[in-house]
Amino acid sequence: MIFSKKWLERYFPKGLPEVDRVADIINLHAFEVDDIQSVDDDFALDIKILPDRSPYASSHCGMANEISAISNLPITIPEIKDVILDSKISDVKVEIENKKDCPRYLLRRVEGVEIKETTGEIKTLLQNIGERAIYNIVDFTNYCLFDMGQPLHAFDADKIRGKIFVRRAKIGEKMTTLDNRELILDNDSLVIADQEGPLALAGIKGGKRAEIDRETKNIILESANFNPILIRRAVQKFNLATSASRRFESGLSLNYALLGMKEVSGLINRFLPKSKFGKIIDIGSENEKSKKIEIAHKFVSEILGVNIGVEDIKRILERLNIKVILKGEGIIAEIPPERKDLQIPEDLVEEIGRILGYDLIKPVLPMPLKTRSLPNRQFSAIEKIRQLLVDYGYFDTELYTFTDHGNYEVMYPMAEDKNFLRTNLNDGLLKSVRENNYRAPFLGLSEIRQFEIGQVFTQNGEETHLAMVIFKSEGQAVGNYGMEEVTNILSELEKILNTNLKMKVLSGSGFYLIEADITESIGRFIAPFGYDELGLEKASKVKHQDFSIYPFVLRDVAVFIPADILPEMVSQLITETAGPILQKIYLFDVFEKEISGVKKKSLAFHLVFQADDKTLTDGEINEIIDKVTVLLNSQKGFEVR
After folding, report:
1. What predicted TM-score, i.e. pTM, was given to this entire model?
2. Which of 84, 281, 363, 634 is most buried by a 10 A CB count?
3. Under 8 Å CB-to-CB from 203, ≥6 apart: which residues?
4. Does the residue 195 lie in any domain?
């Protein structure tokens, strides 16, 4: 979420420190600050808020409270008072179908509003966090959302027919959203409706039919609390996430609904003083009660590993707006309703630790175990297999569990070709080696060896499979090539698992692939009595080498040289000139030709360029190729073709 520094500073009478210091405060004690951008005379902080803490922290007021609690800077939260009522304005009629779908629902009629463009600080602050200013009423509701965290909505009162209903949609019922999307609803969709049909998709998006426009004179303000599960389902179904839906999904406090209604009413009254306000209709008006968690002073110190006094604990919790009652060595903490993340004593200990500062908690090694720790059976078996195959030169591969066909379909797939759980490993492994085979000749590889150990989902359920493949990069049939080695590997695998493996063998042009179900074998595997028996500490003949995540660039260089010059000499000249980004030089063509009565030899090289820290440009590669060309042409009897 994006936060404005100027907006946050409105809560601090003495101001805030420099933006980098504010970011440090948040980073070290609360959330991750992903980015800071300068916006005119303001700064926009992109702060990553975890879902469990979104109910209280995804607003400028909530983030200001966090900064104050961490830094102990004095903060002022203005009291939100309601406006003066006009008794002549009639009450809004509303009916809620199911209180579980909508635990609290507030409406208020406001008459005599003037719709116009927002100006001044509210418009500026909204723009500074990347929000587009629309009309004043809409901007006021958005401002309150980002200021104190309660989503709000405004309907054109004169476009509503009869009573307002909060209900489940009827199957096949349609609604056009404010951004002109037509939704076909079902019984899992919660809507705000009148007697003619849906007006809004509850907690997510308003509808076109009761949209506020330049002609609007009378409005109905809505502030509510909706079932997070229903909101989440609708967001996924319609792919329609909004700033409001993200907050409702996390589970807002019921108390926010009334505060939000009062704050937006106050803004309208301030900027449109001729407006007249009706009574707040509040269904489910009982405020959410605070819960209590009791912890012992000793418990806090033991968990954190640092001795912290009772009074210090009390001061820290009170800075977090948690009321504290001391009861001897015990602490009774009254948790504010918006702190949905604080449920058990350990949650409170974590709060104390982060505000105190993790840098003050000294690391202490745990007491050694009196009993010997036994390795996990499945981990031990798979690690033994992995060690064996890596030692034989196979690359460990981890591929997608999701694919485009299978027995079990995913309800919400990541992509169109990943909507099923895989039934085998061989499809993905064979595709992987074939893709790698395209690059093998350029890297001087004559074969590719890969294996995978992973879960598959057959008609019998979930199984653990092992697959291994040898692929000849020249595209030749494997035939008997390497079969003696494969036979030895399979024999050693069966010794490790103490069972005969039932294997599926696939072979074709250039490859030989084996897949086996090892589920039962792992179940019968006898785990060692200690991790030392796994041999993890033993040095392996296999060496680890990092690889670049950036693409390689292939260029070819061909040169005529005197017949008595060795190719290795030419290769060395090219390598020294090209520098460290030349990852591989590979001779792929040699022939002899007589030129002007002199016998010449032609050499053609693949040059593979790749950087560890960036994607190389054509200009950078061309510059190197030009240097190589100049150097080779300067050698006696050399001529670049």
Report:
1. 0.67
2. 281
3. 151, 190, 224, 226, 230, 231, 244, 245, 248
4. yes
